[in-house]
């Protein structure tokens, strides 16, 4: 449950000392992605879109869109060119998380 970059969390400045957005957690995730040769599929296709996959049940966070993107679908580099679409389905409300959609060509 790590919000990897500042765009992945609703308020990076006030959350900089919050578990899930600590510098060492974010550095670990960067290292895991880079050294493992993994691709964060949502961010690859949506580099500038601030959209979330999780909201606290407190303070009406989802209705106010005060969320975090902590759910990932990562792929290995050899199949990155087969990715067709990656999306977060914010309108599907079944829990405090939303579904993540990934379309990969066969």
List keywords for this structure.
single chain; alpha+beta; two-stranded antiparallel ribbon
- H/E element string? HEHEEEEE
Name the average pLDDT: 96
Q: What structural class is derived from the secondary structure elements?
A: alpha+beta
Low-confidence stretches: none
Task: Choose one word for the global shape.
Answer: globular
- CA(first)-CA(last) distance: 29 Å
Percent helix: 10-25%
Report the biggest beta sheet as strand number plus sense, adding barrel if it closes: 2 strands, antiparallel
Percentage of residues in strands = 15-25%
Tally of contiguous helical segments: 2
The radius of gyration is 14 Å
In which order are the strands of the major sheet placed? Answer: 1-4
Strands, count: 6
Characterize the structure shown.
The structure is a single chain. This protein is an alpha+beta fold and 106 residues long. Helix content is 18%, strand content 20%. It has a two-stranded antiparallel sheet. The chain has a two-stranded antiparallel ribbon with strand order 2-3. The chain has a two-stranded antiparallel ribbon with strand order 5-6. The longest helix is centred in the N-terminal third of the chain and has 14 residues. The protein is globular, with a radius of gyration of 14 Å. The mean pLDDT is 96.
């Amino acid at each position: 449950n790590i919000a990897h970059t500042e765009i992945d969390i609703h308020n990076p400045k006030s959350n900089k000392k919050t578990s899930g957005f600590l510098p060492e957690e974010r550095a670990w995730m960067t290292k895991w992605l880079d050294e493992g040769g993994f691709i964060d599929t949502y961010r690859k296709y949506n580099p500038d879109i601030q959209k979330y996959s999780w909201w606290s049940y407190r303070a009406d966070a989802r209705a106010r869109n005060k969320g975090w993107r902590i759910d990932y679908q990562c792929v290995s580099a050899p199949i990155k060119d087969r990715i067709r679409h990656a999306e977060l389905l914010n309108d599907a409300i079944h829990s405090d998380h939303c579904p993540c959609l990934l379309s990969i060509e066969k």
